[in-house]
Design a protein that fits this description.
Helices cover 45% and strands 13% of the residues. By secondary structure, it is an alpha/beta fold. It has a seven-stranded mixed beta sheet with strand order 4-10-9-8-7-5-6, with helices on both faces. The chain starts with a helix and ends in an 11-residue tail after the last helix. Bound molecules: D-serine.
């Protein structure tokens, strides 16, 4: 980055320090990952200089010879991996992707039914602070109080009562596999379209270690940067009959020109995702989550739903006498980066809730296996038990730095 270093030393210094932070801390934020150097190179390419409003073969600007090729490669690769009829690779990220789906099928005031945000749903699934909750009429299903799991009979009776135009299946903090067949049946019974937001588990679907929603959903949205390990971006997949409505809703409905550098990086990430190495990564993500979950359960931690079937764990810290925010801050000081999170039926406020959320994707990308996950569980417990002790935090941080030297993160190998 010699040009950046010369021209903008302040930003250069921030990026250098961020590289170090990502290298020497253990990143457990369930929505984060490390992209490959190839994905990073495509993201930082001249494609950022080009305007391309429109779609392949039908653009409003000239000079699209290579951009068309890039976008078609991204589409073809997504179709090959996920088996979808139609793919739009232009959404800037997950929230605009979901908004585009609403624009395609809803009028203001129409009803949508999704998982409640405090129960693990997403802001864009109808939360009242989001445009999805302001312009449409959101209804929510909750998790079962006893099991912490979805109760499909409850989802069904709510759907039959409120008759949503769109039924949403998807989450940002739920550690179980969704029953897509059941969601499909409920959507059919109440006359709704089924939207699956697979942002969190797209990489697990691509890696063939998680059921695919493609045979069941009318429309699927996903970000490309979580378990899928691509750049910040998103895709919408749908059945052929919805292709026109989706494309129109993305452009010109909610967006202008696509971010071609991101499209190229998505194409690269999808090529990587169609390899045996990626399938092994996806399988290891699951084993790693289970190893960490089992370690924490054995130390008396209360995992919502009692465990995990994906990359994600949600822990209710109420029985440990510490809030989610206090725990997350202490853990960050100790080199364990995660986020505080509401738990179902939380009595605390979202900014300082009762839980913490973790995921195993980023650590798996840097090569951690079950033994390192068990060690992470021990460190988490040690820091939480001694959360006011900065000496303990410093000691754990030093041990983590040492461990990370043996597991260079993709793209940051030069730091070891
Ligand atoms: N905010 C993301 C997450 O952390 O799960 C989802 O968009």
């Amino acid at each position: 980055m010699k040009h950046l270093k010369e021209q903008d030393p302040e930003i250069y210094a921030c990026i250098q320090q961020e590289e170090l932070r990502q290298h020497e801390k253990i990143r457990l934020i369930a929505s984060e990952n490390y992209v490959s150097t190839a994905v990073m190179e495509a993201t930082g390419s001249v494609l950022t200089n080009k305007y391309s409003e429109g779609y392949v073969g039908k653009r409003y600007y000239e000079g699209q010879q290579l951009v068309d090729r890039v976008e078609q490669l991204a589409i073809d690769r997504a179709k090959a991996i996920f088996g979808a009829d139609h793919v739009n690779v232009q959404p800037y990220s997950g929230s605009p992707a979901n908004l585009s789906v609403f624009l395609a099928f809803l009028n203001p005031g129409d009803t949508i039914l999704g998982m409640a945000l405090p129960h693990g749903g997403h802001l864009t699934h109808g939360a009242k602070v989001s445009i999805s909750g302001k312009y449409f009429r959101p209804e929510f299903y909750s998790l079962d109080k006893e099991s912490g799991r979805l109760n499909y009979d409850t989802v069904r009776s709510q759907a039959l009562a409120c008759k949503p135009k769109i039924l949403i299946a998807g989450y940002s903090a739920y550690s179980r596999i969704l029953d897509f067949e059941r969601f499909r049946a409920i959507a059919d019974e109440c006359g709704a379209l089924l939207l699956v937001d697979m942002a969190h588990f797209a990489g697990l679907v691509a890696g063939k270690v998680h059921p695919s929603p493609v045979p069941y959903a009318d429309v699927i949205t996903t970000t490309t940067h979580k378990t899928l390990r691509g750049p910040r971006g998103a895709m919408i997949m749908c059945k052929a009959e919805h292709a026109g409505a989706i494309d129109k809703a993305v452009f010109p409905g909610t967006q202008g020109g696509p971010h071609n550098h991101t499209t190229a990086a998505i194409a690269v990430a999808l090529k990587e995702a169609d390899t045996e190495a990626f399938r092994q990564y996806a399988a290891q993500v699951l084993r790693n989550a289970k190893a960490l979950a089992d370690t924490l359960i054995s130390r008396g931690y209360n995992l919502v739903t009692g465990g995990t079937e994906n990359h994600l764990m949600l822990i209710d810290l109420t029985n440990k006498g510490i809030s989610g925010k206090t725990a997350a801050r202490a853990l960050d000081e100790a080199g364990l980066v995660l986020n505080c999170n509401t738990v179902p039926f939380d009595t605390r406020k979202p900014f300082d809730p009762s839980g913490i959320r973790m995921g195993s994707a980023a650590v798996t990308s840097r090569g951690f296996k079950e033994a390192q996950m068990e060690q992470i569980g021990v460190w988490i417990d040690t820091v939480i038990q001694n959360h006011t002790d900065t000496g303990v935090q410093a000691k754990v941080a030093a041990e983590i730095k040492e461990l990370c030297k043996s597991y260079p993160a993709p793209g940051l190998e030069y730091l070891v």
